[in-house]
Amino acid sequence: MLSTCSTIYAEDNVLTPYKKHGITILWENDFLNFLKSDRYYSNGVRIGYTSKEYDYFNEDNPMSWAKNISIVSYNKPHITRFHMSINQEMYTPATHGPGIGKNDHPYGGFLYLNTGIFNRTADTEEHIGIKLGVVGSYSLAGQLQTFLHSSTGQLVFAEWDKSQLNNEFIFNPYYQITLRKYIFKTKPFSMDILGTFDTALGNADTHFGAYGLIRLGHNLDNDFGMPKMNLEQDYAPVHSDKFSIYVFAGGGAKVTLHNIFVKGNSVQSDLGYNLSILRYEASAGLVMSFYGVRLGYIWTYYTKDYTVQPYDHHAVGALLVEFSF
Predict the structure, then answer these.
(1) Quick check: helix, strand or coil at residue 186?
(2) Is the separation of the CB atoms in 196 and 210 below 8 Å?
(3) DSSP per residue over 285-303, as a string?
(4) What is the set of domains in the chain, with CATH numbers?
(5) CB 61 within 8 A of CB 115
(6) 281: β partners
(7) How far apart are CA 153 and CA 146, in angstroms?
(8) In sequence order, which residues have a C-beta less than 8 Å from that of residue 12 and are 6 or more positions away?
(9) Burial state string for 285-307 with b = 16 or more CB within 10 A and e = fewer than 16
């Protein structure tokens, strides 16, 4: 492969801000994983906005102080953009009927604002953010899922009113850093490797993890990968109008110290289980973008979240639609 792609084309490595805003619609659901299961992490929806990019090192801007919101690129040239989104996640047991089966997953809903900052260089993307929201009936997850399932003729989960987490305010900061290394880079197509370190600290989720992704396709410079909600590696929108298409596959490991959707609220520990401290993930998918419009699909498989979990794995599919303007 390398011998057939020996002609490397030169590209301008000067960072150029992408002066378009973005709207993101992301849907994660275990129905989209081809196995059509309906349990555990069952559904997630995001509707979000991302600002245009700013070069605070070379632009006269009253927000230039924001260039200092960085760890790996502090006081070094980089491109900055901001984001905010409304997100909802749903967690259910494997059984639909009354009661919760032995060792089955607790009911849980999470409604939150996700906001933060992306910092980009030629080969790195840094993501600093925070999730603010609620779990419990205030999340409206039970009400929404019951309405959708009953409206479409699907089985309705019977215990949302009795067995879900108590209402609790969530404060959950997080940090992600992704580094890119090209294996080869040509005009028709290229291959790169993305390595991501991810950590979160909060009363919903406390963990750290490391993940690798290999991509093969055309114009990989358009982005750093497809975003996720509940599963790690939450990347920024595109930063180029060029046509791009690529396939990808990867995986990694996650060390979890706290997960409210497994452990339960602190005052409701009888609903919780012992965490599986170490969890593994594998994913694959396809992304295509042109002129600021990006479409993508990703399939993610991961091992059990808690030690007595009846099913030793779960899989979730995700669809992405993104518009830049």
Answers:
(1) coil
(2) yes
(3) EEEEEETTEEEEEEEEEEE
(4) 17-324 (2.40.128.140)
(5) no
(6) 252, 302
(7) 11
(8) none
(9) bebbbbebebebebbbbbbbbbe
What per-residue confidence (pLDDT) applies to 17? 97
The sign of the CA dihedral 26, 51, 292, 180 is negative
Neighbours of 267 (CB within 10 A): 8
Q: How many CB atoms within 10 Å of residue 192?
A: 21
pTM: predicted TM-score of the whole model, two decimal places: 0.91
Dist CA 297 CA 29 (whole Å): 12
Token readout for 103 is 């060792």
- If we measure between CA atoms, which residue out of 24, 202, 39, 61 comes closest to residue 108? 39
- 169: closest CA among 137, 146, 198, 203? 203
Sequence length of the chain is 325
- For residue 30, the SS3 value is helix
Question: Would you state the structure tokens that stand for residue 321, as one six-digit string?
Answer: 């639609």
- 156 φ/ψ angles, rounded to the nearest 5 degrees: -100, 130
Summarize pLDDT for 52-89 with one digit per residue, the tens.
Answer: 999 999 998 999 999 999 999 998 999 999 999 999 99
Whole-angstrom distance, CA of residue 59 vs CA of residue 52 = 13
C-alpha span between 142 and 157 (Å, rounded): 9
Which residues, 6+ apart, have CB-to-CB distance to 104 below 8 Å? Answer: 93, 94, 95, 310
Report the alpha-carbon distance of residue 251 to residue 255 in Å, rounded.
14
